[in-house]
Design goal:
This protein is an alpha/beta fold. It has a single domain, classed as Alpha-Beta Barrel (TIM Barrel). It contains nine helices and eight strands. The protein has an eight-stranded parallel barrel with strand order 1-2-3-4-5-6-7-8, surrounded by five helices. Helix 2 links the parallel strand 2 and strand 3. The relative contact order is 0.15.
Length: 229
């Protein structure tokens, strides 16, 4: 069965709460897209937000993420040099953190960061690397032993939902599956009823879905459909 993870892109904390509420008692994990307006042109909660009070309450453990007791959160950090903000997202309650390889200015420093993570983080938080459709998979090799999965972006223009599928990702997935047979390969962007079977056939075993679920009239049924492809 393919793992399906809804993606949420929120403007502010209230928007985040309302979007997550749609998945209550349906999913166990949600991906929160974080856009900084630098690495990607779009912006989203919590990097650019007027919700400082809500954020501080979470950081101070006075409050939690919406539905934190029912849903695990993974943060897709479309953020320049996101590793410098690692502890911030850990304190927000991340169970998984996805870094974008192209967003890191100094890959030597980034590699040292991954290798030097405290054992507590390594045991309790999954780390992933995302790559664009134009990034050679060989770029992942220095980091592969320090990550839990790879996220291939299925669109060229990241940081937005509803973008057109970029079929270059299919060869990328095939090559990754051949080189790393046991690797968890996630795909984010452009996933729909037409592209999902192609992605799974290429070797993806995890699909992150945004606009299709956002527009679904029956989220549970739509997720079941994708899980059983």
């Amino acid at each position: 069965m393919t793992e399906i993870v809804p993606a949420v892109l929120a403007e502010n904390f209230q928007d985040l709460n309302e979007k997550i509420a749609k998945y209550e008692n349906i999913v166990s994990s949600i991906q929160i897209d974080v856009c900084d307006g630098n690495f990607v042109p779009s912006t989203s909660w919590p990097v650019h937000s007027s919700d400082e009070e809500s954020i501080q309450k979470i950081l101070n453990e006075e409050d939690g993420m919406p539905y934190w007791d029912k849903i695990d959160f993974e943060f897709d950090l479309m953020v320049k040099n996101a590793h410098t903000q690692f502890e911030f997202f850990v304190r927000l309650g991340a169970k998984k953190i996805i870094f974008h390889l192209e967003a890191e200015d100094d890959l030597v420093t980034f590699k040292e960061f991954l290798e030097g993570l405290d054992i507590y983080f390594k045991e309790n938080i999954e780390i992933a690397l995302a790559i664009n459709t134009t990034t050679p998979i060989d770029s992942l090799e220095p980091f592969i032993n320090n990550i839990d999965f790879v996220q291939c972006m299925g669109i060229e223009k990241i940081g937005f939902q509803g973008e057109n599928f970029d079929d270059r990702v299919l060869n990328q997935i095939r090559d990754l599956r051949m080189k790393y047979p046991e690797l968890i390969i996630s795909v984010d962007g452009g996933v729909n009823e037409n592209t999902a079977p192609l992605l799974i056939k290429a070797g993806a075993n995890r699909l992150v879905i945004g606009s299709v679920l956002k527009n679904s009239l029956d989220i549970r049924e739509t997720i079941n459909y994708f899980e059983n492809l």
